[in-house]
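Might I ask for a little of your time on a matter of protein folding? What I wish to show you is a protein chain and, alongside it, a tokenised description of its three-dimensional fold. I should value your view on which stretches of the chain appear to form regular backbone elements. You will find the record immediately after this paragraph:
***
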Amino acid sequence: MLMWFSLELSIQARRRRVGWLASPPMDVNSLIIGLISYVTLVVLLTFHEFGHAWMASMCGDDTARSEGRVSLNPLVHIDPIGTVIMPLLMIFLPREVGSFLLGWAKPVPVNLNNLRNPKLDDVLITMAGPWMNLLLAVVCVGGIKIGIIADSFGVVEFCHRAAYMNLGLFFFNLLPIPPLDGSRIMRVVVGMSHETYAQLSQYSYFVIIALIQWTPVPDWIGFLCRGTYSIISSWFGMR
């Protein structure tokens, strides 16, 4: 299962801790920004899960392919609660849009018994999702360059937002907390049993919420996103 959270969905978003205090009703502009962010989130989740499914197929497990998951059709990856209800509630409830957004897609099924090299292939399949988001971030920064050349502020703004969302997905999913991708890599590295991993996953949501609200983890992720964004921008001759 993939989760995602962002403290900066808009270019001018203010940095603040996640909270549940209600704010004044959003205006039309904020609503539009929220809906664009939601559609972008669905697309990015789709590419992320496609990456997992495609790599699993390449490593010899056709479970995901047989279920139609090696696809860029968002409908095959959507989780009713995590991809639809939860993110939309985050947007439409009376809070400042851009301060907190949470969502996930259906986990890609993988049968480790079908893999040619279970341990290595498990890591490759796990990393395929985050690497897909990193690749998309590079594409989005390239889109910014095109937008600048074409003098299109709309393209620049959208690609800027999408690039940061992809980088946020990339780094957030590398956290070693179940069910995030980083925890699956940790399980393989330390040789943790699937049973132990499943037991730890029962409490993961509480840990994630605590990290988001009461630790500097969001600031660290933001720092990594800005640094990586700067590096990628330099590849395209932008500073």
Remarks:
- The chain has a mean pLDDT of 84.
- Residues 28-235 form one domain.
- Residues 118-149 form the longest helix (32 residues).
